[in-house]
Amino acid sequence: MNESENIALAHLKFRGFASHVFEPDGQTTPDFLLDGRIAVEVRRLNNHERNSQSTRGLEETALPLLMGMQKLAKSFGAARSEAWYVGLDFSRPVPAWTRLAKSARNFLEQVRDSHLSRPSTHQIAHRVTLEVTPRTNIADDMFHLATFTDDDDGGWVLDDFERNLRLCIDDKSRKTAAFRSKYEVWWLLLVDHVAYGLSDFSRTQFRQSVHIEHDWDKVIVVNPLNHTYYFDL
User: Fold this and answer.
1) Cβ(188)–Cβ(217) below 8 Å
2) Domain limits of the chain?
3) Residues 163-203: tens digit of each pLDDT
4) Predicted TM-score of the model (pTM)
């Protein structure tokens, strides 16, 4: 089981289901079968890119960029007589790291070779900016990635929650459509990494202002930090 499925199992046990089978039909939908009749699909509820209705998660762009920048900074080795903090700021769409790496390296080499003594900012691609700041502590690496700012990750919690909830529900509805006749009841359990289950006040606001059409018998939103904190749609 992956992390989300483990959280889902803990939640289903909390709700009193003693009879639960993981992947009753093998490595295909559903993820769990309860009491021999309730099929449960599990999905991570996460932030998605804003420039389309894609279900591509923000982390699918951010992680390769973060890892590439960390590896590049590390490649300059230990500090000598000077060192710098590096900040990376970006918004989507973002070119692949393979297209950004040369420009980023050239900028850091210029910083090193010019012995830069003041903060400096450089755009290595459209929507992607590096900022370097001289450090007083030079005990470790020459360049240390200190900040990593994803301009697409944030906003009003309820707006983000609604948008990503719709995307995740629609995504799972499409992927399970051909299997729905196999079981009497279908639930969708979403492990919420956007709003972490919402506060009581936000839940009230959400229920008063938002109605989401879906074809599931129940949609369950679970806080990944506390599987007993949930609400049903």
Assistant:
1) no
2) 3-47+155-232, 58-150
3) 888 889 999 999 999 999 999 999 999 998 877 777 776 78
4) 0.58
* Ranges of residues in the chain whose predicted pLDDT is under 50: 49, 51-54, 154-156
Q: What are phi and psi of 213, to 5 degrees?
A: -75, 135
Strands of the sheet containing 143-150, edge to edge, are: 120-125, 128-134, 84-90, 143-150
Query: How many whole angstroms from its chain centre is CA 92?
Result: 14
Asked whether the beta carbons of 85 and 133 are under 8 A apart, the reply is yes
Angle between helices 97-114 and 58-75 (to 10 degrees): 30
Alpha carbons 106 and 232: distance in angstroms, whole number: 52
Closest CA to 1 of 42, 39, 33: 42
Q: Where are the alpha helices (DSSP H) in 15-149?
A: 58-75, 97-114
Distance, CA of 164 to CA of 18 (rounded, Å)? 31
The CA–CA distances, whole Å, from 165 to 119, 158, 181, 188 equal: 41, 10, 24, 11
The DSSP symbol for 180 reads G
For residues 16 and 30, give the distance between their C-alpha atoms in angstroms, rounded to a whole number.
19
Cβ atoms of residues 60 and 41 within 8 Å: no
Of 232, 220, 217, 214, the closest CA to residue 183 belongs to 217
